[in-house]
Design brief:
The chain is mainly α and about 350 residues long. Helix content is about 50%, strand content about 0%.
Length: about 350
């Protein structure tokens, strides 16, 4: 799809005379947040590169300095980096063990919980999995008022018929998926969407989690899908999309994300920006989806008068540098040259 941006002068934004983009023959009005989306992507990626070089200040943008935002590339975020380097790439590479480690980590999505389990069990393998042992460790942590789940997104509890503790329902879910040959079924799936549908068929896994989980599993050699073939918008992304495209309906969301992904270079260059790149890898659908979520948060401060879907107005987490960044790790199948990380 060809990107066509109709320019207007800044004062026309104030008069609600919004420009538009044509997507598959349809015109979608775009707000000032549309341009901010690409400016945010470019500046947030520069923040990563400057932190990697230990160049300070990492940005002059007061919003980026004050609040926490995820990277332009999902794979660069701390949890994804830990998942790839410490969970996926370390240990048995057979399908069942890859699936078990990845899902066990992602059900909690918290590095400290994985480290807690490692301290108790050493190498974490499905071959030595015992529900009661893991349950004991996690229940003990809860009794000590320790958090075992990440706050990045809410994991469903399993409902009234679930286990008495949420983590027990999730451990039983993981056992069920392995008993029903999900690792083998995912490995044989012909597309990311087919793999997504397999995960979606299980209790407590909705659209958002199924898309996140299939993306995480795809960092391993269990599957090998392109991140350009399939996307599911999350709730935060819908907010960001609405702020960029005021007239959009929810059913338009996947097409709009794909439009941004497919036309990213021309859209960024038209706005006078250097296209974002990770060792030559352009933004993927999952990255563009995440960027809508982060742009929604950014716009709460930068464009408080432009409303999304949920009506949220505050950014909860503040930015706090956690020290120098380590050299990133990527799935070997991507073939990225780490020496080009600063290009």
């Amino acid at each position: 799809m060809q990107a066509v941006l109709f320019h207007t002068r800044p004062q026309e934004y104030a008069n609600n005379k919004l420009p538009s983009v044509k997507i598959a023959g349809r015109a979608f009005r775009v707000s000032p947040v549309f341009q901010a989306y690409w400016q945010f992507a470019a500046e947030r990626h520069l923040v990563f590169r400057r932190r990697l070089q230990e160049t300070w200040p990492v940005t002059n943008d007061p919003i980026l300095l004050k609040y926490k935002f995820t990277n332009a590339y999902r794979v660069l975020d701390r949890t994804s980096q830990y998942l790839i380097g410490e969970v996926i790439q370390k240990g048995d590479q057979t399908p069942v063990e890859l699936f078990y480690r990845t899902l066990l980590f992602k059900l909690f999505n918290k590095i400290e919980t994985w480290e807690l389990l490692k301290r108790h069990f050493g190498e974490i393998r499905f071959a030595s999995h015992r529900f009661e042992f893991i349950d004991h460790v996690l229940t003990d942590a809860l009794l000590k008022k320790q958090r075992i789940y990440s706050g990045a997104y809410i994991m469903p509890s399993g409902g009234a018929d679930g286990q008495t503790k949420k983590h027990r329902s999730h451990l039983r879910l993981l056992e069920m998926m392995i008993q029903e040959d999900v690792p083998k079924r995912l490995r044989e799936a012909k597309s990311m969407e087919e793999a997504f549908r397999i995960l979606l068929s299980y209790p407590m896994i909705g659209n958002f989690l199924a898309y996140q989980f299939v993306t995480d599993l795809n960092y391993s050699d269990l599957t090998d899908y392109s991140e350009r073939e399939f996307v599911i918008p999350g709730p935060g992304a819908l907010d960001g999309l609405k702020k960029c495209f005021p007239d959009m309906a929810s059913c338009d969301a996947p097409e709009l994300i794909r439009f941004m992904c497919d036309n990213q270079e021309s859209l960024q260059m038209e706005l006078g920006l250097r296209p974002v790149s990770l060792c030559g890898r352009p933004l993927q659908l999952i990255d563009c989806q995440n960027l809508f979520c982060e742009t929604d948060k950014y716009a709460r401060v930068a464009f408080p008068g432009i409303e999304g879907v949920s009506g949220r107005t505050r950014i909860k987490q503040s930015f706090r540098a956690t020290g120098p960044l380590l050299s990133p790790v990527f799935p070997a199948k991507w073939g990225l040259d780490i020496n080009k990380i600063q290009d």
